[in-house]
UniProtKB/TrEMBL annotation:
The protein's assembly and partners: Homodimer.
Keywords: Chloroplast, GTP-binding, Hydrolase, Membrane, Nucleotide-binding, Plastid, Plastid outer membrane, Protein transport, Transmembrane, Transmembrane helix, Transport
Main localization (coarse): plastid
UniProt protein name: Translocase of chloroplast
Superkingdom of the source species: Eukaryota
Pfam families assigned: AIG1 (PF04548)
Native organism: Arabidopsis suecica (Swedish thale-cress)
PROSITE patterns with a match to the protein in the record: G_AIG1 (PS51720)
Biological role: GTPase involved in protein precursor import into chloroplasts. Seems to recognize chloroplast-destined precursor proteins and regulate their presentation to the translocation channel through GTP hydrolysis.
Subcellular location, record wording: Plastid, Chloroplast outer membrane
């Protein structure tokens, strides 16, 4: 699939106001400095949260199909754009939930689609303007973890769309953002079974996004959020930080696509541990009990009975 896609020039970048363009070109310069010529970003999340819209905003053209009502199909879309020797690959995926559950077929299709690719960054997308997390969030996080291994979260960012938003009851914007993101980050941490030692000072960055035309603009015509951030350059900056954060990118090989759940590998040792436990604990225990039983003084009735028996014979 990736091989069939011809490299297209990233002309969408010209849609951005000059201030944004120059920031983006500066970021591309960083990749050149580090001798990195391509970047692959995987976009995942529930349906209708704004994944495809975000892909389009980032590319600056309508590359991915946006649907107000769910009917996305199951196939991911790879969008590749090249600019001065650098290639940006973004993979838009369909929502994973169907009928209240994660659709395993959708996960498998995505895994197969990604075969032989290396995921540099995962954007986990949800909406900012929602107040609750629920079981579906946990399921989607769990499904991503099962598919790619929990290490993928060290290459991820939480993207919150609909960020041009006024919190209810006059709540402070930044306060609301941190409440909403903490709730989702907690779901990610538990759903991905990330322990403190897994994270080692690493925290998943949060990126705010507003895809609609309602987004406010600053005097340089850049889209800005209520917190004052001009979000397109900020998103590219965060993606760049993740790609250079020193954690390993996720290579999707045959083993990952066809093999067992990457988080289960350690669990193969469990039968072995049972055997060890038997040898180390159970066997001596059984031996001790047996010798205890034989050493135990015989109860009076047994002595008497055996005495009787011996007298009779
Ligand atoms: P996907 O299913 O996650 O790919 O979501 P889409 O990108 O197809 O978006 C679903 C709907 O939400 C569409 O009607 C979009 O126009 C709308 N939408 C997406 N992102 C935003 C956003 O940041 N703000 C607003 N107001 N609407 C958005
Ligand atoms: Mg979509």
């Amino acid at each position: 699939m990736a091989a069939l896609q011809t490299l297209r020039e990233w002309i969408g970048i010209q849609q951005f106001p000059p201030a944004t363009q120059s920031k983006l070109l500066e970021i591309l310069g960083k990749y050149k400095e580090e001798d990195v010529s391509s970047l692959t970003v995987l976009v995942m999340g529930k349906g209708g949260v704004g994944k495809s819209s975000t892909v389009n905003s980032v590319i600056g053209e309508k590359a991915a199909a946006v649907s107000t009502f769910q009917s996305e199909g199951l196939r991911p879309t790879l969008v590749s754009r090249t600019r001065s020797g650098f290639t940006l690959n973004i993979i838009d995926t369909p929502g994973l939930i169907e009928g209240g559950y994660v659709n395993d077929q959708a996960i498998n299709i995505i895994k197969r689609f990604l075969l032989n690719m290396t995921i540099d960054v995962l954007l986990y997308v949800d909406r900012l303007d929602v107040y609750r997390v629920d079981d579906l969030d946990r399921q989607v996080v769990g499904a991503i973890t099962d598919a790619f291994g929990k290490e993928i979260w060290k290459k991820s960012a939480l993207v919150l769309t609909h960020a041009q938003f006024s919190p209810p009851d006059g709540l402070n914007y930044n306060h609301f953002v941190s409440k909403r993101s903490n709730a989702l980050l907690k779901v990610i941490q538990t759903g991905a079974q990330l322990k403190k030692q897994d994270l080692q000072g690493f925290s998943i960055p949060v990126i705010l996004v507003e895809n609609s035309g309602r987004c406010h603009k600053n005097e340089s015509d850049e889209m800005i959020l209520p917190c004052g951030t001009s979000w397109i350059p900020n998103l590219f900056n965060k993606i760049t930080e993740i790609s250079f954060n020193g954690n390993k990118a996720i290579h999707v090989d045959k083993k990952l696509v066809e093999g067992p759940n990457p988080n289960e590998r350690g669990k193969k040792l469990i039968p072995l541990m049972f055997a060890f436990q038997y040898l180390l604990v159970m066997k001596p225990l059984v031996r001790a009990i047996k010798s205890d039983v034989s050493r135990e003084s015989k109860p009076a009735w047994e002595l008497r009975d055996s005495g009787l028996a011996s007298r009779r014979s």
